[in-house]
Structure formats: C-alpha cells, structure tokens
Amino acid sequence: MTDRLILTVAVLGGTGNLGPGLALRWSRAGYKVLIGSRKAEKAQRVAAELNQILGIDAISGMTNQEAAREADICVLTVNHTAHRSALESLKPALKGKILVDTTARIDFRDPRPPAPPSAARVAQDILGTEVAVAAAFQTVPASVLRKNLDDPLDMDVFVCSDEARAAKEAIRLAEGGGMRAFNAGGLENAIVAEGLVAMLLSMNKQYRSKTGTLRVVGITK
Question: How do residues 206-215 score in pLDDT, each as one tens digit?
Fold first, then answer.
C-alpha cells in the first residue's frame, strides 16, 4: 500500500440507509465517490438521485466489484445479514486496499450487543493481510447525514484498526464528512461500538428519536 493522498472513495452496498448520506458528504468535501451495489442499475439510480441533490454529476454508480477496484479506499455499508457474503465476493477486488467496515450486527427489532469477535475482526480474518480493515461509523444515525451538508455534525466517530494508516484514513474520512473522530484502539475494541448501537437504538425507541448519537468529552484533539 502506498502513502499517497486518497481521492476516490467506494461506498460498497451504498444504496441502503447509511451509504447515500456518507456519499453526499464526501462528495461535498471533494472526494470522488463511487456508489457500489450488487446490481449496477440500482447503484446508478441512487447515484443519479444524489447528484440531483448536489446539483452536479459528481457520484457514479456501478457494481460493488467495479467500485472496489477503482477506489483508493472502500467503505462497506451493507446490511449485517449480508456482511460475510459481501466480503467473500469482494475479496479479490479489495486486495491492497483499505476497507472501512461500518457493520453493527444488531437486530433493530430486538437490539442487543453482539457476541465477539467484532464484525471488523471477522472482515480482517476473511480478507487476510493484504487488506487493512478499520471499523467506523457504527454509531452514526443515517437520518442526519443528508441534512445541512455544509455544516459539521454534532457527533463523534470511533475508529478501530490494527493498522495505523487504516485508522488515519478512516479518521480523515469522518472529518471530511463533518464529524469528529477518535482512534479507539484495535479491531477487538470495535465490538464495543457495535454494542453501543444496541444501546442507542433502545434509547431512541424509549425517547421517540431517530438521531441519538455519542460525543466524547474530556479529550482534546
């Protein structure tokens, strides 16, 4: 892996809830953004919708494999039930890349912390040493990402990785999207972020919200 400036981001499985909002913010920040999906037509449709919001043709849609091959850094935003199958199908295209895994293995109907290992650790084990995996964005509420694209978001992102460069680039992505981000340790720690999602979902349900998130205090960056 080189240490050159990362310019192109592929949002794999990027047609769901989280992916489009992240794509909008990164495109606004100056990244070239590729939306990936199992079907190119679906990705192209979502890309067209996002470009209409942006007012320019800045986001492209294609298959997950095509997007992964073209990107400098990839962000996996698939549903947790498709996590393993997506990783296995994308392994050849991800060789030599950084993968940021947003997966939280939580049942929204009955949110409970998952058992270890973390989803990101599973991803690293599947992809092997030729891919650098970071975990991030699990606790980001998708519903706020499309609003006020030019304004910073009142939330923090926890980044976990065993490789310093992967953590650095995930932090850079978060900050490009208007969020603060913190290096929260290795991939084993990402299980905590997944568990926090269960807590946030329970709190959102209790207090009739969709935007509950987390902020770090007492640490100055």
Answer: 999 999 999 9
